[in-house]
Here is the input.
Amino acid sequence: MTESGLKAVLLANREKLLRFLASHGAGDAAEDLLQELWIRVSTASQGPVAQPLSYLYRAANNLMLDRYRSMQQAAKRDADWVSVATSGTGEAEEPSAERPLIAREHLRLAEETLDALGARAAAIFRRHRIDGAAQKVIARELNVSLSTVEADLRTAYRAMLDLRRRLDEA
Here is the structure.
């Protein structure tokens, strides 16, 4: 049976496969799994299949198991993250009173570092990193070449990295 033959068997037995998935734990995801099975059958390059309906049932079951395992891994990952991110009582730890003060001080130092680079380099860095503007757009807006924008960004990034190293050492 060719690939198109396998698709024909899937279409002819769609309702049976859907009931199979729903009755074996797929629940509301049965339609999604059947769609995924259709995509795999449509895009796969395989030879003749001796028992096409059995093949489709096995493939549907495997897809269901893959989805179940993926959901289990995601739930475990989320639970692990929550346990790491929270204290023993299940509540997130409150930041210390000095944390906002330290953050403001770091922001002030970053602004001073940028301003020391010059107005154009600071504006380019802020426009790119904060506003999310593309380098070409910034070059057009400031009427400078793209290489000037790139050079100013390199300078600004280097200055920010140096500041971060100094702060990490302190």
Observations:
- The helical segments are 3-12, 14-26, 30-43, 52-85, 98-116, 119-129, 135-142, 146-169.
- The chain is about 80% helix and 0% strand.
